[in-house]
Design a protein that fits this description.
heterotetramer, A: alpha/beta, Rossmann fold, seven-stranded mixed beta sheet, five-stranded mixed beta sheet, 12 helices, 14 strands, globular, B: alpha/beta, six-stranded parallel beta sheet, two-stranded antiparallel ribbon, binds thiamine diphosphate, binds magnesium ion
Chain lengths: 330, 341, 330, 341
């Protein structure tokens, strides 16, 4: 790809910047808080401080629980905070605030509270950051009612979903697969006010023999695998859910009902993964259509090792997806 | 050092215009908390409560003195000992009582219950059964007030037990660096269930932690409603003036067991000491006697006020009793807000 | 049941007390920390302070993250701490310490660290405690490698598993279904030094037509349902996994391979539940044997409402299990 | 107030028997940290490092002064800025360097990497990439020492940024109520990535938080290895004597970017100021000049020591380079301990 065409493409960090800028311009209740925003260390906050001022752009001290709780309270009192937690491995310190406050306050107070909060966190695996920076913890949050979760695999989707998330009156967690920050995640620059509604999957490729549901980088791998399988005469349909909660079950069910086979590609740890949920749900609701085992391609149940000699093998790969698809035919 | 007011002369707060009304409102709200909770004891013994309740009896002066230093447009968060806070903030008793019985007319539609009351109409943003967990929420409400420039203040209740939770530290630090209009208010009743404050806190006074966040900290006599009011009012003034957060600690007493009716296998405090509290540090009696001594009200007037509150509570109990339960579907609503901006 | 026979039965709290006492007597490195232990508020610590003294029996201040981290550090420095977190809804505040320290330290330090820590927490649902005390969060922890998880459904199993957990050199989370504290969880008093190894399921009832895997109270409900189904001529096999990590897959697979049908009864929230994992794994590894949809009976994806008029319906029940079994035959 | 030592007379610590050895060991360990990290810069530029590294250059006096006040049987935990701590605690350089390259011979078998070094053989219980997360771990190690009556102490490193995390508060409180033998040691280098300590802390000195937990708190000049050593040694003495925890803060400087090679889009500190630090507050230069002035060592001797350390570092780099990578299966071991008691 030449520099010229690449310049016309939207990247992940630009998508975030654009979504945040557009929505903060549109609605002055939206504020942005995160570590190192003013110095723009992560690269998605360029120009924000100049444009929106220090009251709406705040650098957070290191206090994850406090930060999420502050966002919950600010939302209950009329703001629409975006919290940039930077790396998804930092969510754990705030888990009580996610579960006990953000997810439950509306329900427990009988609908009195409204919590329009967006929390962004990058899935920072696959890059030698080792066990403390490489978590993919979204399945934990799927187990918590009251939270919505998006996990886009292209920059245009990220832009459109993030804007929907900021407008949503519910807490939305946005997980960004850092492996898509570069070339893999780029896409055509959408028109002004590009919106992708929450809860709608994208069918990346149509096919008839097997359905591959791919999450985050998994969607990219699924497309690669589908191309390889096509050469072998296997026609794979690739679905990117984009939103994990609420999941677009109709699109997945319709596809599996046609193909009779399912592979789910999910960068999360295997046990109790999003892939587990999708497989379980399909085994429950599409059983009669099934013609082969439901196969999950996930990260192996181990921690992320530092050594470049160890790390890559534990994640989903195109080859693992291809092998999984073949397994559904045995 | 614990600050009390001097019982001698009529205090300035009550001598000025509206002073008598303030004094009577203090007494009214303390009576509301007391009689509301006395009623829950009756309901408990009658087997009408679906769950245990944590009573604020003995702590009314702390709760009411603090809340009356704020207005209903100000924010407040509390904890599991959850009845007193919204009552003191001005919430209607009927919807609170209905909530305790899990009724559809409850302030949370029956979904919250005793430990999780909230009444947004009076700025009560909800209590938390997870101890300490609402502290950052109050801090965030203060942030919203600051960003919106609304002049509102957030009042954040927590106990001596909660003072050991990390979110208190994180919240006080954020509030201080951003000069948020929030008042951290510790009801130090000496116990976290069975563990004494001496054992769980590493300092004699929780207020000694304030200096670590460059905010003023003061410990007041929590049985003295005026002392509590004064200290909180000063903290509220600071907050509204943009001078940032404060920490107010009220030393108080929990007259009943941690949860009413709870049986603790190994006693951790002497019943005779507890009994003596009723005689010597009952905040309602103390305030009653001062009001009479100061000529703010007569015993008869105070009795009449108590009777009024009793009718209010009786009506609340009746309202709660006759209210319907929510329909089963209600279990599945309010998980999300359906219609969005 | 007469008082005399009941007296010969072991209850949940007695099982805990006995396991802790036996193991603390056996190994002086075992210490016990939790809130309100000296006053024995929860009822499982009777006599502990007198027997083992204040150095080994400590009341914790309210500081969940600190408590789990302290346990991790104490274990790395030679003790074998048991932490009584009392109610499972209090785990969230400590999530970072569970994930980043307890689960990962051994791995990240290349095996230098050993973390023999037991964390106990009661699943306190079904009793009007509302949204902040009624969580069943074990599926979140199943997503974290490095932790073992037990969830017994009878007091004798609790005794034997807890003793194994205390002796295990890895962090073990023990979730105790508080609905089994009473009659439902009682069982015959075992002999001295009763051990149930981690990772072995119990077949509670043998059957040929359908496999019901029941977790915690779910095992009890499964047995009830199996009895009812038997009257209808449906022969249900009931399996209680007892340990969730490591799961006894061979026992489950063997059963499903015979029966061709699976129902999982799990008190956790539905999405990304233990039931999802079990169903997904069976759909992957036993596909050819399956003769009907894999059905999960879980708690509905909502929060726990306070009102007695609302609460019970959201949980698994005997009737829901029976209906689920019937669904596998359609 | 920041405590420095007086540069005039030969200090007691170095005048006594073994004093010269202590002084030389301070210099040796500071050189080890410095040269080890200079070597990682070379590896970084050569593209030989699998990931970014966070350098302690500029902070050597803080790290070494603190660690030398403990012994190798004492415990220590650190953070993401992770090389200096185990080196100062006495770890071998070769296994540390091999870890940075992800080799099988690395101190963590290649599984931890730069941010997560640990060397249990010298009491280094591991560093944490999750900021603040190891603070309770150190506290727990101190608990174990207390229960076992072993006389060991735990040294807990954290930064000014980590000081805002709730676990610090929870840990210091527990340590204080139980009088645990732990020393909380804050390397206040003025920044958490781009955020200044003035912005993120609500107090001028982290040590001002100590009073909130009834423990002594002191701030020392972190460029003065002896001042750090003295303050830490006193805290260690207290801890061993059963008097409980202390908080020591070293005001220091981070000479390089947060992570070496990191490009921060918007500058947050002036490069000319940073440059002047190398000239004025380099802890190695400062100590070098004092040692010469005090006649503890000659310039030649110190040059020789530096040369020795350089060979050690060169050998470590060579060892790391020629070491094999771990076999793929290693990714799946150590998740659990297989054989059990
Ligand atoms: C995070 C958390 N840990 C433990 C509990 C159990 N618990 C409920 S109230 C309480 C004591 C709280 O003490 P304090 O904050 O002083 O409030 P008080 O009950 O005295 O009003 C405890 C330990 C809880 N609800 N939440
Ligand atoms: C819980 C957590 N939040 C955020 C980060 C990202 N991060 C890594 S280092 C750092 C700054 C830490 O500052 P400080 O504690 O002062 O240590 P220093 O880097 O200055 O040595 C931040 C924000 C992290 N690793 N962990
Ligand atoms: Mg208390
Ligand atoms: Mg720093």
């Amino acid at each position: 790809m030449t520099t010229a065409t690449r310049a016309k493409q939207l990247g992940f960090l630009q998508a975030i910047n654009r979504a945040q800028t557009e929505e903060m311009t549109r609605d002055e209740r939206v504020i942005l808080m995160g570590q190192d925003l003013r110095a723009n260390v992560f690269g998605a906050a360029a120009g924000a401080l100049e444009k929106f001022g220090p009251s709406r752009i705040r650098d957070l001290p290191l206090a994850e629980a406090g930060s999420i709780g502050v966002a919950a309270g600010a939302a209950m009192a009329g703001l629409r905070p975006i919290i940039d937690l930077t790396v998804a491995s930092f969510v754990f310190g705030a888990m009580d605030q996610f579960v006990s406050q953000l997810a439950k306050a509306r329900y427990m107070f009988g609908g009195q509270a409204t919590l329009p909060v967006v929390v962004r966190a990058a899935l920072y695996y696959h890059g030698g950051t080792a066990g403390h920076h490489a978590d993919r913890p979204y399945p934990m949050f799927m187990n918590v009612p009251g939270l919505k979760i998006i996990l886009p695999s292209t920059a245009p989707d990220l832009l459109g979903l993030l804007k929907s998330a900021i407008r949503d009156d519910n807490p939305v967690l946005c997980f960004e697969d850092a492996n898509l920050w570069g070339r893999k995640g780029r896409g055509p620059i959408p028109d002004a006010d590009h919106i992708v509604p929450l809860g709608q999957a994208a069918v990346r490729r149509t096919g008839t023999d097997v359905t591959i549901v791919g999450i985050g980088l998994g969607a990219f791998l699924a497309e690669q695998a589908a191309a390889e399988l096509a050469a072998d005469g296997i026609s794979a349909e690739v679905i990117d859910p984009r939103t994990l909660v609420p999941m677009d079950w109709p699109t997945i069910f319709e596809s599996v009902t046609r193909t009779g086979r399912l592979v789910v590609v999910d960068p999360a740890n295997r046990t109790c993964s999003a892939a587990s949920e999708i497989a379980a749900r399909v085994a429950e609701d599409c059983f009669d259509a099934l013609r082969g085992p439901l196969v999950r391609v996930t990260t192996d149940d181990t921690h992320v090792p530092f050594s470049p000699a160890l790390e890559k093998q534990i994640y989903p790969s195109k080859d693992k997806v291809v092998a999984a698809v073949r397994r559904t035919f045995v | 050092m614990t600050v009390s007011t001097e019982p001698t002369a009529l205090p300035a707060e009550f001598a000025c215009a509206g002073g008598r009304e303030l004094a009577m409102e203090m007494m009214r709200r303390m009576q509301r908390v007391r009689l509301f909770e006395e009623a829950t004891k009756v309901l408990f013994h009658a087997g009408e409560l679906p769950a245990m309740v944590h009573l604020s009896i003995g702590q009314e002066a702390a709760v009411v003195g603090a809340c009356l230093a704020t207005g209903t447009s100000d924010y407040m968060t509390g904890n599991h000992r959850s009845h007193g806070h919204p009552i003191a903030k001005g919430a209607r008793l009927d919807a609170l009582m209905a909530e305790l019985l899990g009724k559809a007319t409850g302030v949370c539609g029956g979904k919250g219950g005793s430990m999780h009351l909230a009444d947004f109409s009076v700025g009560s943003l909800g209590e938390s059964g997870i101890v300490g967990s609402a502290i950052p929420v109050a801090t965030g409400a203060a942030l919203a007030a600051q960003v919106r420039g609304s002049g509102q203040v957030a009042l954040c209740f927590f106990g001596d037990g909660a003072a050991s939770e990390g979110v208190l530290h994180e919240s006080m630090n954020m509030a201080s660096i951003w000069k948020l209009p929030v008042v951290y208010f510790c009801e130090n009743n000496g116990y976290a269930v069975s563990v004494t404050a001496e054992e769980s806190l590493s300092v004699p006074d929780v207020s000694m932690r304030a200096a670590g966040y460059s905010m003023p900290g003061v410990t007041v006599d929590g049985q003295d409603v005026l002392a509590v009011y004064r200290a909180t009012a000063e903290a509220v003034r600071r907050a509204r003036a943009g001078e940032g957060p404060s920490l107010v600690e009220a030393k108080t007493y929990r007259f009943h067991e941690h949860a009413y009716g709870l049986q603790v296998p190994t006693p951790y405090r002497d019943q005779s000491v507890v009994d003596s509290w009723f005689a010597t540090v009952d905040p309602l009696t103390l305030f009653h006697d001062r009001l009479v001594a100061w000529d703010v009200a007569t015993s008869q007037e105070l009795d009449a006020l108590r009777a009024e509150v009793r009718s209010e509570v009786d009506a609340a109990v009746e309202f709660a009793r006759v209210s319907p339960f929510p329909p089963p579907e209600a279990a599945y609503t309010d998980v999300y807000k359906e219609v969005t901006a």
